[in-house]
Specification:
This protein is an alpha+beta fold and about 120 residues long. It is built from five helices and six strands; from the N terminus they run βααββαββαβα.
Length: about 120
């Protein structure tokens, strides 16, 4: 299991909902005038092996000292390299211009267990 808290910049939240949504799909990057694959295509390699769940801050976005999202991932041990490849693709602002608006928080890696007692063994 991997947990990534992510806040976005104020500039991101000043964009319209439609403009923010456009960053998730292939589009022409307005800042550089080049074709950008977008979030969905950059992350495509992980679709078969990574489970992802996004939790939005229930109190809203742009809150000081808080994250806008908590992203939770699960994968088999042999898919961890794929997770890191997907993260590298998402962090590449040429492929995914959305990342220019991310202030990445810490990333926690752990192991999911079926029962609490398994941790004590």
């Amino acid at each position: 299991a991997i947990v990534m808290p992510i806040p976005k910049t104020a500039e991101w939240w000043q964009k319209s909902v439609l403009e923010r949504h456009s960053y998730f799909y292939p589009h022409l990057d307005q800042a550089g005038g080049r074709q950008a694959k977008g979030h969905a295509i950059a992350a495509q390699k992980g679709i078969p092996s990574l489970y992802r769940r996004v939790y939005h801050n229930p109190d809203g976005h742009e809150r000081e000292d808080e994250f806008d999202f908590i992203t939770y991932f699960e994968c088999a041990d042999d898919a961890v390299p794929t997770f890191h490849e997907v993260c590298a693709a998402l962090r590449d602002v040429a492929r995914n211009p959305e990342w220019a608006f991310v202030r990445e928080g810490p990333t926690w890696h752990g192991r999911r267990v079926a029962r609490w007692e398994e941790l004590c063994d």
